[in-house]
Amino acid sequence: MSPPGITALLESGSHEWGGAAPRAVALVPTPVESQPSVYVRVAWAGRTRGDVGEVTVRAGARAGGVVVRLDWEVPLPARRIDDWNAYADACAVLFPEGDAAVTPIDTMGSPEHPVHGWYWRAGTDDAFSLTAHGLGTVERAADHPVRVAARWSGGRWTVVFAAPGVPPVGEGPGAGVAVPAGFAVWSGVAEERAGLKSYSPEWQSLAFGALEDGA
Amino acid sequence: MTATDARPQHQFAMVIDLNKCLGCQVCTVSCKTQWTRGPGMEAMWWNIVSTIPGRGTPRDAFDLGGGYRDGVPVPGELPPKGQWGEAWNFDYEAALSGRGHLEPLTADGSPPEWGPNWDEDVGGGVYPHSYFFYLPLLCMNCSNPVCLEACPRDAIYRRPEDGVILIDEEHCHGYRFCAEACPYKRIYFNEQRVIAQKCISCYPRLEEGVAPACVRQCPGRIRHVGWIDDPESLVHKLVHVWKVALPLRPDFEVEPNLFYVPPTLPTAFDDDGRFDESRSRAPEELRRLFGPGVDDALATIEAEREKVRAGGTSEILDALISRDWNDLLGPFTVDPGRLERPPR
Questions:
Q1: Topology of domain B3-85+116-328, per CATH?
Q2: Which of A30, A34, A37 should one mutate to test binding to chain B, selecting the residue with the greatest count of B CBs within 10 A?
Q3: Which residues of B touch A38 (CB under 8 A)?
Q4: For the residues A70-93, what does the mean pLDDT come to?
Q5: Is residue B193 packed enough to be buried (19+ CB in 10 Å), middle (13-18) or exposed (0-12)?
Q6: pLDDT tens digit string along A202-214?
Q7: Which CATH architecture group holds A7-210?
């Protein structure tokens, strides 16, 4: 069930998006050779990946918080983990906690320069709020205010995250503010999980447009 | 740091005498009632007794990859739940009313295609050389644990005090590379909690000096436990001194700390129908499972038996017979019934 207040934002034509314009971000598969486990590097060498080449991003701000919407093409969705060898589609938005210029995105931060993010996995109603300081270090917050709504329709997943704010701006960045952000999607059908995903290899400027008031 | 660099202070080990295994699954049930009754654990059998020859649990368990070959991890396959065996339902009403038999049903009402110890007593060999034996399986706390290496989150660790390998459930994100990589397929997936789970060697009992449930409950008294690094322990002697206990599938290169006394099996017959003491009924099967050392191990056991038949004594057979139950338990002889327990 989608949380109230953001469900309408799943619709790209919703008037609530107001002046927030969509933007296409190119994605590439994460390099197998950079995976932290030898087993994964060997097992996935040459394997077919999800190869999601693009995600459309839209971000908006209004009193009380921000929303970020991702949508991407998935002809055959993996809607949930429904077997022991099944994996679900997923996506994430990542923000550097500090200066993006010295925060590596391809390793999900570093011990000195951590990152923060939001993660959604098909089959769950809740978002995960993450922090990381390098590959394999993702921690999920027990309590957090991030909410999520998701829908698969017409061969595309659409996911909307809503939160009080984003690092490093903090709570309530206004319309017109832009922050560095990264994006990733996982293909469940291709058995992608953990560091095996399609991602934006460089920080992108995520600009927040002004949202119209919703219902 | 590789997995093998982190040598524990002591290494917990188990020796299972396959000549004494009844296939009764009491070990399986004792584990089930102790540890796997929680949500998402319905179809988990951290300990299972399979029948050899057979395809195992999950189906074709030892042919799904994993482990190492020449030091390089071997990609593994994780089979779907149906190939492990789901938590079956039974139509008791049909059976009790006489409308049908007590047949197992999967969650969608269809008959199962596989299950734990599915091929029980199918056996193998050609008459008169037919044979079978039972093979209990559980986490082997390997000294070269490929599951630990496979986890990109370092959510699997080896306890420094006893070498028991555990999955940190708070840290596990359910990626299941570990389950793929385990060549014995002893790591399960909890679909509800999206985490991997496996045998924990009853470590809370070990910490109190109590042997694991599967060991204490075994009516055949087939399981020895102790520190493999203690030269005075029976597990050490059985494995390293007498060399009658062997690792399963040593070609997987994971250095398991669970060892098996191979089954001697009934003696083969010669062409005239007489017993041929020099031949095993299943030499190739035993070599495939336990490696080339199995011939010497079986020869040692047979020689010890011959000594006893001739009126002598055998320290090895005395150890395997274990007339005193506590001899099985190494340093873990505390009776759990005598432990103080917090009030419920």
A1: Alpha-Beta Plaits (3.30.70)
A2: A37
A3: 73, 149
A4: 97
A5: middle
A6: 999 999 999 887 6
A7: Sandwich (2.60)
